[in-house]
Amino acid sequence: MITEHTEELASLYVLGLLPPDEARWFEADIAADAEVAALVARLEAGAAAIAAAIPPRDPPPALRGRIMSQIRSEEPASASVPPSLGSRTVRLPWAIAACLALLVGGLAYERYHLKLLVDSFLLRDVAQQRELDRVQTRDTDLQQQLDAALAHNTALASQTAGLQSQLDAMRGEVAALHARDALSQIKIATLASLSRDIPQAVAVVAWDGDTQRGILRTSKVPAARADQDYQLWIIDPGYKQPVSAGIFDPGKEAHFQPVQSISKAEKFAISLEKKGGSAAPQGPIVLVGE
Asked: Hey, which residues does 247 pair with through a beta bridge?
């Protein structure tokens, strides 16, 4: 398995920058490990391709002389260099240039790629922040609309309550008017005694011509004999005879309805009739009143 340390040693080996002892040790790894040997071959091929792509350029004459003088002065030392390293020493300047170009190009590419990534993250962060601001603004607007709607509903509820109160008051007034009007249509008649035997006897009649119904109350009217009944009569100018409103018990409040429709109750009278009453007054009139 190729580790980062192995890749670093392989790069330095191709550049010719490993010390002799480390170079011999690494060459033993190359001979023993095919994967390491393939890595070194790829690095050498890449360096050679880059070097071949650089156009040739003649060095200045003075530089050539200095380089040749340095080579001649180092020839005895170069004889002790192993053949495998000596072959690389001849192309060392090209290898250094090629590998440096690879390293510089790789670093530049990584730096450019990293800048693109950073810029994309920054742009995405700016877009997300803008979207967040837009959502927050929308949320604020919606909250304001909701508050306004709630305030409006509260005002409407208060207004509705006020209108309902006014409506209830108006209904109360109408009911009072109806009741007062109904009372104005009711005829109240007081009947006084005509009998010397019961001079203090009194009767009160409340008559509603719209409903053709009435109420009778008596005071100090003695009970009738077992073979007699008190009978109420309504005197209407439209009829020749008084109209019967039925028999009643003087000890109780009597609700009555005449046997015929009454258009005008001019007077009321109470007679003492035979048991069960009669169709027309036959007994004595004991109370009468308008």
From this structure: 231
Distance CA 284, CA 290 (A): 18
Give the CATH number of domain 186-289: 2.60.40
Q: Where are the domains of the chain?
A: 4-115, 186-289
Answer whether 286's CB lies under 8 Å from 198's CB: yes
The identity of residue 251, as a single letter, is G
Per DSSP bridges, beta strands 186-193 and 267-274 are: unpaired
Rounded-to-integer distance, Cα 17 and Cα 22, Å: 10
Cβ pair 249, 155 in contact under 8 A: no
In whole angstroms, how far apart are CA 243 and each of 13, 125, 151, 168, 210? 145, 103, 68, 43, 17
pLDDT by residue, tens only, the chain of 290 residues: 788 888 888 888 888 888 888 999 989 989 999 998 998 898 888 777 766 665 665 556 665 666 667 666 755 544 444 444 444 433 444 445 555 555 545 544 555 556 666 666 777 778 888 888 889 898 898 999 999 999 988 888 888 888 788 768 857 865 765 555 555 579 999 999 998 989 999 999 999 999 999 999 999 999 999 999 999 999 999 999 999 999 999 989 999 999 999 999 999 999 999 999 999 999 999 999 98
CA 229 → CA 58, 104, 192, 226, 270, distances in Å? 160, 138, 18, 8, 10
In sign, the C-alpha dihedral spanning 33, 36, 42, 47 is: negative
How far is the C-alpha of 15 from the C-alpha of 91, rounded, in Å? 10
Distance, CA of 121 to CA of 167 (rounded, Å): 67
Q: In terms of DSSP bridges, do strands 186-193 and 213-219 run parallel, antiparallel, or are they unpaired?
A: unpaired
Three-class SS state of 208? strand
